Structures are given as C-alpha cells and as structure tokens.
Amino acid sequence: MEPIGTRDSMVWSVAALALVGCGGAPPVVEAGPPIANSNPARIVMAHPLPPLDGAHLAVTVVEVHYGPGGSSKPHRHPCPVVGYVIEGTYRSQVQGAAETTYTADQSFYESPDAVHLVSANASAERPVRFLAVFTCDRDTPLSVAEPHDSVLPRP
C-alpha cells in the first residue's frame, strides 16, 4: 500500500480540479478501463457540480479514517464532496435516500448541504479509509454538526 499524500491524493486533487474547470461536467460515469492502453489512468467517476463562484474556488482533500465500528454523528457539508474509498467498507446515508455501502476503489458524490444520517465503517473488525474532496467557492467549514432534532423523521 502506498502512503497517502502520494498517488491517491495527487490523483484526486487533479480529478477535482479537472471537474471544477469543466463548467459543465458530464453525467455520472462509473469506473471504467484505462483511458488508453499505454496510460494507467481511468475515469473513476464524473458528476456535474452545482453552480459555483469561479472567482473563489478552493479544493480541499481530506483523508477520513474510521476504526472498526467507528462512525460520525449526523452532519452536513456546505460544499459538494467527491469521495473515494481507499480501503475497507464505508456505509453512508443522506436524509431522504437509502443507505449505501461502498468498498475499496468505489467513489461517491455528496450534494451540498445534504444531511448525513449515517457515515460509518461497515466492519467491526477492519478500518475504513477514504478521501473526501471538497470543492468550495466560499470560506466555510467543511463539516457542520446537525442538531439531533433536525434529523429525526417528522410525524
């Protein structure tokens, strides 16, 4: 396994910048074969971004690590996020959607301000590690805690 900060971070930083620079990114694309036989690169995912203020863009790459059975409390991200699972199995659920499980080499997109009801390691024995690439167009925290009452189903 390569240390983080080399290939994985560089690939995601370049991918995020490419998506931002595209203005109108193509629709979601699943992982595919290498782009060319002599090129080891492949498109892992593409997803259109919401309108952003191009004069104030910043990309931040965060490595998230949950130990066995680990999770975070409900939260949201004010900016769009692209995630890529490096190792382990990650469980995620945003309000109004079904829970989804992602394994190593899978990617996902999170819309701005979507409330995360579940962000957890799916395994009680092994850690999970993933990259979260935030594309922000303003100075804002990357994560905001959600008050408990705001994530409960309404009667």
The general outline is globular
Class per helix and strand makeup: mainly beta
Radius of gyration: 16 Å
Q: What is the helix tally? A: 1
Q: Average pLDDT value?
A: 79
Termini Cα gap: 48 Å
How many β-strands, per DSSP? 9
Oligomer: single chain
CATH fold descriptor: Jelly Rolls
Strand order of the largest sheet: 5-4-7-2-9
CATH architecture: Sandwich
Please identify which CATH superfamily we are dealing with: Jelly Rolls
The helix content, as a percent range, equals: under 10%
Describe this structure in words.
By secondary structure, the protein is mainly β. The protein has a single domain (7-151), classed as Sandwich (Jelly Rolls), CATH 2.60.120.10. The protein contains 1 helix and 9 strands. It has one helix at residues 7-21, and strands spanning 58-66, 75-76, 81-87, 89-94, 100-103, 107-110, 115-121, 128-136, 144-145. The strands form 2 sheets. It has a 5-stranded antiparallel β-sheet, with no helix packed on it. It is globular and about 45 Å long. The relative contact order is 0.24.
Care to give the gist of this entry?
With 155 residues, this protein is mainly beta. It is built from one helix and nine strands.
Features:
four-stranded antiparallel β-sheet; disordered C terminus; 155 residues; 1 helix; disordered N terminus; five-stranded antiparallel β-sheet; Jelly Rolls; mainly beta
Q: Any chance you could write out the topology, listing elements then pairs?
A:
Layout: H1 7-21, E1 58-66, E2 75-76, E3 81-87, E4 89-94, E5 100-103, E6 107-110, E7 115-121, E8 128-136, E9 144-145
Antiparallel strand pairs: 1-8, 2-7, 2-9, 3-6, 3-8, 4-5, 4-7
